[in-house]
Amino acid sequence: MIHEIYMRRCIELAEKALGRTYPNPLVGSVIVHRGRIIGEGYHHKAGESHAEVNAIASVKNKELLKESTIYVSLEPCSHFGKTPPCANLLVEMGFKKVIIGTLDTNEKVNGRGKEILEKAGIEVITGVLEKECRELNKRFFTFHQKKRPYLLLKWAQSADGFLDQNFRPTQIGNSLTKQFVHGIRSEEQSILVGTKTALTDNPTLTVRELAGKNPIRILLDLQLKVPPTFHIYNDEAPSIIFNEIKDEIRGNIKFIKTGRENFLQNLMLKLYEENIQSVLIEGGNYTLTQFLQADLWDELMIIKNEELNLHNGTCAPVFARKPDYSKRFRDNIIGFYRNT
Fold first, then answer.
1. Catalytic site residue from 40, 52, 187, 282
2. Whole-angstrom Cα distance, residue 192 to residue 297?
3. Is 52 a catalytic residue?
């Protein structure tokens, strides 16, 4: 029970960096000396110090480390990247006990960090709040285990099941759901739309309703029909344009050539090669239905305006399952689904 209390704090710390650590995982760490927390840290951003390093740095009296237990939500790394291995650092600092939330399935670590600690005579306990620690890094684990990004589908529909009115851009969500969605955008590494949505809505695909990092914009535009004057080509965020015509890099715009055959499978492969760990898919009916029919999704959000009937327009994708849970935002209800 005591271990769970400190591990929960590790998770709380790690969540502070949600959306900012890609391609690295979210990690929090707590150092405990005789029942008192003397140090805390989390990984803020890729390329910067890891959670364990920041936790150790926050301890005023380093002599206490040899008598302390360090908690970390994810197995300490065992390889040299932009920073040295954390497992070696814990050995060097003289910790006698390390509590780990979950092991790292990344092939660069995958038990090696734990092995380094145990070979040094350190007591290691793993699997504390393991389910919660894995949920924290669902994007990271999906990417490394399935060799594709974590996929979150989202759309907004009227009470009578339309995405727009008379095939023109229509505001369906209210100000609260708009803020909520922009918060989701700030947490995901990228956001994807198809050609029709880009041409009809000319979306910015950025975070405007709150402070946060803009996601990488992904456009599926095989014939390059979207004009370069549209928002998706501006310099507010990087963009990746999947097309049948060319491979090219132009400033913050990257064109990646791909064909129609086995399109979704090839798309997943190329996104994996681009190190994209998560994608928020906000396309129209055609794009969303492609992913649904292929059963290629991990989470789904449906925003429904109960008081709005549009009578005519683009039909929402067909999805009959009851939500796992729902949240009300005034006249809007968001249903949340997990693909298990």
1. 52
2. 13
3. yes
